[in-house]
Amino acid sequence: MGTSSAPRARSSPTIFDVARLAGVSHQTVSRVINNHTSVRETTRQRVQQAVAQLSYRPNAAARAMVGARSRNIGLITTGSSDYGPSSTVLGLLSAARSADYSISLATAVDTEPESVRAAIDLVLGQHVEAVVVVASRIRLLDALAGLSLRVPVLVIESSGRTSPSLSIDQYAGARTATEHLIGLGHRDIAHVAGPGDSMDATERLRGWRDTMAEHGLVAPRPLEGDWTPGSGYRIGNALTQRGSRFTALFVANDQMALGCVHALAGRGISVPDDVSVVGFDDIPEAEHFAPPLTTLRQDFRQLGTNILTTVLDVIEDRPVEPVLRLTPTLVVRRSTRRRA
């Protein structure tokens, strides 16, 4: 998590330069300068050393500016319409509204560093107190790695590569889905995976594989879709055409599961009489599939609350949980049944 930017070419150092050198937020520097008692002694000494090294001299106007609170948070997305990222954004917007915070939203048109930097510069111009990045693709993390900002940055991603790490535990959800099918007596369980560069898809694939291995079951080569019903339909047809042996499908999201069920029905394969199917996400339409879909529900509203709480803790320099993950909940409907 970045806390400050590299010094700019100026005639005198700024409070953000001090924060960067000391490795703290600029709010912490302000508290040290104003002799607040809430700062740990080791942190106070580090800030004072940075102040002395840079010969920083605060003035009254700067103090007033730093003390002001904008109650505004920057939010960076890739503009994805995928259910998970878009629902995470909605969860954070709801939590911010309840806490009387505003959100300045910017979209990185792709995951190139220049695009990400442009999006961040856009929200920084809105006097934000922190920036939240909803990252669904691995390349976005790579683009963020080289950036150093003057405000705290919180990245929402499921791989655990950033700290603090906030997400919904995709790995645990996949394990729950696979255990559910194994508990129903299924041993030949195929997996329809999401895109290879998606962190959520990677974690769901890993959870399925690990659970199969723990039960001494062979995990066949998964087929990769793109989250859409169309790709699920193509994969469902491919699975039947190549004569794959399976009595159950764990599909990485509900929309691809819809396509799979459609393909199986077109080939006279009944769900769940012949093949049980589990999806992931519990989209609003899942309970109206034919048959209603067994799936994993993610609590995006609670995730939004956790994100906002952590952002405010970082802003106030309070301790934060290094890892905070919500566990998806299995919703059992009629697309799964015990194997005869």
TrEMBL record:
Keywords: DNA-binding, Transcription, Transcription regulation. The keyword Secreted does not apply. The keyword rRNA-binding does not apply. Transmembrane segments: none annotated. One of its GO terms (molecular function) is transcription cis-regulatory region binding. Residues 13-67 form the HTH lacI-type domain. This is DNA-binding LacI/PurR family transcriptional regulator.
